Queue: 2 jobs
Job 1
Amino acid sequence: MLISGEPGIGKSRLAAELAQRLHAEPHIRLRYFCSPYHQDSALFPFVDQLDRAAEFGRDDLPLARLGKLEAVLGRAALADEDVALLADLLCLPCSERCPLPNLTPQRKKEWTLWALIRQLEGLSRHQPVVMVFEDAHWIDPTSRELLDLTIERISILPVLLIVTFRSEFEPPWTGQPQVTVLAPNRLDRRDRTALVEQIAGSKALPSEVIAQIADRTDGVPLFIEELTKSILESGVPLVGIPTTLHDSLMARLDRLASVRHVAQIGAAIEREFSYEILHAVASFPEDELKAALARLVASELVFQRGTPPDAVYAFKHALVQDTAHGSLLRSSRQQLHAQIAEALETHSPELIDGQPELFAQHYAEAGLAEKSATYWGKAGRRSVAQSGVTEAAAQFQMGLDQLALLPDDPERQRQKLEFWSALAAVLNAVKGFAAAETGQAYDRARELWEQLASPSEFLQIPNGECRYHLNRGELGRAQRLAEEVLRLSVERNDSAGLVLGHHSCGAILMLTGRFASSRPHLEEALTLYDPTLHRSFVHQYGIHCQLVSPAFLGLVLFCRGFPDQALARSSAPIAEALRLAHPPSLAVYLSVNTRLVLLVGDNAALGERADQLVAVATEQGFPHWRAEGTIFRGWARVKNGDVAEGMSLLRGGCAAYRATGAELWMPHYTALLARACEIAGQIEEGLTLLDDALHIVKRTGERWFAAEVNRYKGQLLLRQGQSEAAEELYRKALSIAEEQGAKLWELRAAASLAQLHRDQGRRAEARDLLAQVYGWFTEGFDTPDLKAAKVLLDEVGGP
């Protein structure tokens, strides 16, 4: 059930009323709260729920907390590894009985999400479950991912999930059969009057006052409730009735003058705050603090759970917290947030590692930019380690915002360099290699890198620039940057940089059609790579070269005329790619390997690889690779006979791919769509597309597929009866292939030309041309290309 509406319309009240009606019914109730303080804290609502369910005491040692958590999870009968993962999520030590599995960050994240799903499943086997997930407009990206999984899973479970959110949030779950949407309206005049009378109870209000309340509150239930209580408390004359919900809340806080400061401190801490932290920050004597809190609770602006010193308090509504916090003077607010951060460091040191973003926010509010930036950096690195790249991007950006407030000096420049470098790396995944935001981050990082005399530990910056320009189709600039990486690595004897430099040079040379020069670079990258020595390679450069270099080498070998070796080299790392579970590396590997499978003509494997790529890219939110996977999936549909659906996927995939700023591989993708047009009988559109592809080749220098684009255009012209033009293009394709040493493209061009000669009665020319090229091959005789060439050769009288 999705409940949507403006603040104060009664979303939370509806969920609370349901809970009250179900009080006598056997069920389990789980409550989750999103917070504006934790929009970039991965899985905060779930961490918070487990913390509350376990009822951790302020003096509990880590092992005691672990015991309480295990008791809570025991009800769901979770496996030991699930218990260990959820303990780790709460920054608790694992017991010997439940050791933490040895997983990569991404795999650990995946297993943690499913551990939380299995907890829900386990609870639902005992009793029906009611989950209330409040304020989803403040949800963090990883919790959003988990909620996606949950909504899909509960369709077969005895679980009611209620999600509340403000109107501006656009939920992705509408339209699913198990999902219902409820959007409460403002109350009409009759209901407004009834609500005022109900709240007033035995304290009858004059009819003209009730009418004024009904008019001024505009049907918002929270405003009606607060304004009525305000009038009941103060006996405000008709002319003094507040005109807005904010004014009404402020009036109530003002009348609680002795406790207003306590409310302000609590609001600065968070919507939910502990007595322990409040006591550490407030300057009140303890008896006065307890009395003030009691009055605040009695006003029903704040609710209480437990008793001091273990009590926890929560504002009844986010608007109440906002009003109390907004009433602080700027200087008082800054001082208060600094005190809160220091109190948290003293009394809750486990949060320093578990929720560094909380300290970052408090120090930012305190105007202590340097401390805030330090914690934002810690938060960003923690998110990257947990594969929360979307959260990490936001955290690094907020750290940079804080650093911008400080005087510029070499130390500050280095901090900024670290942040820009880290931000650029995560933007590769979040926005795409070729996105404008990614390029801007690398531009700023390069500027700082050069100002600091190009420190070698930031070699990922020119490499990132190389990848950015490469994916935008700016191959000349990308090649110069790759050569810069290689040169600097040689000068500094940087072995990891050498691996990276050789890989990048090899990939770019392959893409520009210089296959013979490409191969030694890719092989050298693989030779130099040492899994022990280069263990931190992926963290520094964001990619596993031992996966991606073989994939590119496979393309080189295929084009050079060694299809069996190509498949062997390219497919060998697939098990390792799945085991390492590093999503960006896996996506790059699948992208390049799927391309090879497509070129070879293995349609069954093509569909499987395309589905894997789409699954990884969709799960991780990688728009660049999701678009590529859609293109491959479209071609698989075309080859399997579903031409209309395949063309739709090809068009949509190409549009989405270019929307990321990418231009690399577009000659190939455009040619695939042109071939689909040919199959559909749309010859003119196919020719237009191929002219576009040739224009991209000329503009970017991406020539690895140039011979095939010319050959495809010849095929379409032949379909129009233009045999002379077709022969000219076939010969051009043959010339390009010979120049590049691309024997596979040469075979295809020779076969097309031989077929044309055969049909013209020039069988001897056809035989001599095809036999010479076919005779060069020593492998790949089971591939579609060589099989078709052999059949044609037999037809024209070849050996």
Job 2
Amino acid sequence: MSLRRFFRRRYWDAERVQEFETHIQNEIDDNLARGMTREEARRQAYLKFGNPIRVREEIWKMNSIAPFENFLRDVRYAWRTLLRNPGYALVAVLTLGLGIGANTAIFTVINGVLLKPLPYAQQDRIVHLDQTAALAGPDAIGLSVQEFQDFRDQTYVFSDVAEYHSMNFTLLGTKNPERVATGVVSANFFDVLGVKPVLGRLFMPADESKNAPPVLLLSYAYWMKEFGGDRGIVGRAFELNDRVHTVVGVLPSLPEYPDANEVYMPTTSCPYRASPKMIADRDMRMITAYARLKPGADVQQANTELATIFSRRAAAWPKSYPASAGFAPQIAPVDRELTHAARPTFLTLLGAAGLVLLLACANLANLALSRQMRRAREMAIRMATGASAWNILRQLLTESMLVALAGGVLGLVIAAFGSKLLIAYAARMTPLSGEIRVDGRVLLFGLGISMLTGILFGALPGYVASRVRMTSLTDAGERMAGSESGTRLRNALVAAQVMFSFVLLMCAGLMLRSLYNLLSVDPGFKTANVLSMQVSLNWTKYKEKPAKTAFFRQVLERVEALPGVDSASFSWMVPLNSDMGRMSGDLMFEGQPIHPDQPPPQVDYEVATPDYFHVLGVPVLAGRVFTDRDTLDTPGVAIVNERLAKHYWPNDNPVGHRVSTDKGKTWITVAGVVSDVHQYGLSKEAEDAIYLPVYQFDVANTHLLLRTSRDPMRLANQVAAVIHAIDPQQPVTDVRTLDQLRSAQLGTPKVTAILLGLFAVVALFITVVGVSGTLALSVARRAKEIGIRIALGATKERILGNVLMRGMAPVLAGLVVGAVAAVFATRVLANLLFAVGPNDRLTFVGIAALLLLVALIGCLIPARRAVRVDPMKALRTE
């Protein structure tokens, strides 16, 4: 039977009625012509053709599809039932809409970040190659050019290996001088990634030859931002490092990986990478590598081959690879590199949103169960008139599915807006945030979760309704219907709600404690009223140290003369700037020899001008700070932090001791000790650090720091104008206050804590409503019993205690189960927490007490109604 005939049954019915009446009338006329009376003629005509009602029923049945007919009948009945109960329908749709919306919004992010394929050809075959040294910590230390060549020439599991590192250079030829992030890559880099340009071409091997004309590739984002998508950009020339570079192509819109570069150049165009010293020195590590696995090869085989290469290296160059340093290869698939920071956070949030939805389902199931108990007589009548248990179950499931689908539509609307708000949040953890959007997979997820939700909260009430007894046809039977089993089911649902709430509240409580701990961290410096801006000098224009020193002195002199500027300083690093990598290196201590098999200690380096510690408000614990007299013509000096001083001079004053930054070739004297600074993040411990004066140390990549007496951002343009007056071609970029950098450090944990907190508040509210509603129904059903007890002399206190005990029993059961579940559930938060354990006892006790208190308040409302029951009215209703 076709759907076309099914939906045109009324048309076919009307046509057959007309046809049947025509045949009857013709037969009557023929019978009259034969001499019959009109009554007899009519009777004989109907005897020949049959009962018209039965014929129409048979035709209607022939054009019907029974399952579809039953489904439409159930939908129409469910729709009418929900319209008669608009309060229940509205609450159910809103509750499910919020739950489904939260889940779908987070799934939208997970879909864009974790599930969508990367825009690279055969992404599963692309890997990132690097190395680690246990002494330097778990982070990768990079590769030298020599080490990269080992990978390229000695491996057989890779079809191709490409080189990469990123630096900042001054670009001339645009509206204003710009400091652009530049990816320095081998000619085959984009071939390894499997990327095709949107304009022009990619790099070719000829571009990487020593005397090749300098060329550039533009990133898609930079092309759109700076040149408005001008398709004539290919062939334009720009000046970079005092050399004219020609744009040969524009890359497609890709995730900003490995870094957010604006332009790309071949390795031979980078003055630092192309220097003979960099190429020849095996210990100068600043690059990384990407490779494409050959067909049939896997990461395990690559690890085995790299381990063999490392063993050959250690044997050939023992000084570069001391056994105690723990050098080891590091290989990771690119897709994991892109998502490793975001994966645990968003999977945790999805789990939390899922718990909220389960909690909503339990609450709605409780609510639907209450409605079902009130509809017991209706169900008994339907079963008495021929409805089967399956018909009843199907009907109630249809009602729940209708509510769930309506909630799903609302949820998709919420998800569409919510996912947009989460894009900036995701961008803090992964460059794939640009892939987040509502697509077909998200819509299917929303539909699927809506249908699953409808089944979850509709199955239990439907099952109870399908087992209703005929005694429900009487008033007493209706009150007794499902009284015992229904109460047990409702209590079980309340316990489940408390369990889900406990787990959510524990997760939210731990994240809030972690955030509080982060907010309480003393960074070691004062962030208020401090402005930072990047002022990195042109590599070629400021080759000589005197030129750099003259520039620094002029800028500081003029900037400090500006109204509102208290002090200013140049430095290599900016504290809490997460965009900058760690600057560390070897350090030797006079009088503390190092065993030949031991590598020298690793410390963090910072280079600064004299007022650096005053600008940041870092306390000086001993000795002095730098002065303008600490120049190339005076003995070298350094300042160490308190942590380093305690490690290497635990029982002595470090001032006056000497250290070497170049493996003992020259020695510099410690002039002072300052307190520790959290250089790389609030959640990271301060490391051993040494500070060197700018005027004695050659540095070009610098930041200008200013302490002001008013809003620092208002002075940004004036400071930039001063710098441009000294050097019109000097870019000023990355203008931010230290307060903004601190806020950025707290951004991700703060949003995570807020989201989990919102989920927990919703869960707590739903749980209180569920506990209170369950107890209220129990009190209403026990009104006669309570009235009899009061009539027989039971005190109000006894009645109150009895009702509260009944209401709190499922709460206590849920707390016990929830505590056990939380022990395992909170372990997934371990990597997201700071200074608090996943099973923190204080948080456990606090959350349990909060849930008990709130549940007790929820129980007091119906309990107070119980003690006000009038015995005479309760008995008269019988």
